[in-house]
Write a structure and sequence with these properties.
CATH superfamily of the largest domain: Reeler domain
CATH topology of the largest domain: Immunoglobulin-like
Radius of gyration: 23 Å
Number of helices: 3
Shape: globular
Helix content: 10-25%
CATH architecture of the largest domain: Sandwich
Number of domains: 2
Largest sheet: 7 strands, mixed
Order of helices and strands: HHEEEEEEEEEEEHEEEEEEE
Length: about 280
């Protein structure tokens, strides 16, 4: 090796560079999503066996921050890594699993799976102006054997988020005291998350109905303080089959008594659809 270094110094530099590249990649790398890169090519070619998905709300208001996640499954998956980018807005790491680099997110270290899936949680803040934005992501599924042999990767389907100011009924509901977000994931199986925001203290009911209008679940029924609220709906708890369901939020201004207000006391209602797909 000493003679090789004397005769071909560039070879030594190349070896050092390659070693550094693999070392740095173990702590994440950016520029590998469909936004501005061609994927995790240091881990071989893309493989359909690896599934990568971006999960989170499909609609946001300007400046709103929401929770999102990347899930990776399939392939060798002894460890998994990711790179996340956005066409606009701000990506925020929500745990020590991710770090921000050049406005993108990447893993701090290859992450071990739980239940056959690697999940990275993050937050996204929409830009101040309305319009469609796109989240991009790639994920790798590696065997963690110290080399790239047998590793696989794939892109997630791009997630388009509609950023728009509330209008019409939603404007009225915001003025009267609440807003209701689209559940996510949607379609879902078996669980999904329903978020809603109260601008004032309200008596709240949150119920789920089948497409015929029959009530199948009562998730919330009581006074709640102003702020963001999140409810997990697990369809398995209610023995539901695949299909379209409705979730209805009713909010009534607080009477100060802590009990349900009487009919006609300013109750407002919002209903959204969700899809259970088994």
């Amino acid at each position: 090796m000493q003679n090789l270094r004397k005769t071909y110094p560039s070879v030594t530099l190349a070896i050092v560079a390659v070693s550094f590249f693999y070392y740095a990649s173990s702590g994440g790398i950016t520029g590998k999503t469909p936004k501005n890169g061609n994927g995790c090519t240091c881990h071989g070619s893309s493989a359909a066996a690896v599934t990568v998905s971006i999960n989170g709300p499909a609609t946001l208001t300007p400046g709103e921050t929401a929770d999102y996640s990347i899930t990776i499954s399939g392939g060798p998956l002894t460890r998994g890594g990711t790179n996340i980018a956005a066409s606009a807005g701000t990506l925020v790491n929500a745990s020590t699993d991710l770090r921000v680099a050049s406005g993108e997110l990447t893993h701090t270290a290859p992450k071990a799976p739980a239940g056959g899936t690697v999940t990275f949680n993050f937050k996204y803040t929409a830009p101040a102006t309305a319009g469609d934005i796109t989240l991009y992501a790639g994920g790798n599924s590696v065997n963690n054997n110290g080399s790239s042999n047998g590793d696989q990767w794939n892109f997630a389907a791009n997630k388009v988020i509609a950023v728009s100011a509330a209008t019409g009924l939603e404007d009225e509901n915001l003025l009267l005291g609440f807003s209701l977000a689209q559940n996510y994931p949607n379609p879902f199986n078996p669980s999904t998350i329903i978020n809603y925001h109260l601008t004032i203290n309200n008596f709240v009911t949150l119920k789920v109905y089948d497409i015929s209008g029959k009530e199948v679940a009562a998730l919330v029924n009581g006074m709640q303080e102003a702020g963001m609220h999140s409810v997990t709906f697990n369809s398995a708890d209610y023995g539901l089959t695949s299909g379209v369901y409705l979730y209805e939020l009713k909010a009534s201004p607080s009477t100060g008594s802590g009990t349900s207000p009487s009919a006609g006391s300013g109750t407002v209602t919002m209903v959204k659809k969700m899809i259970l797909s088994k």
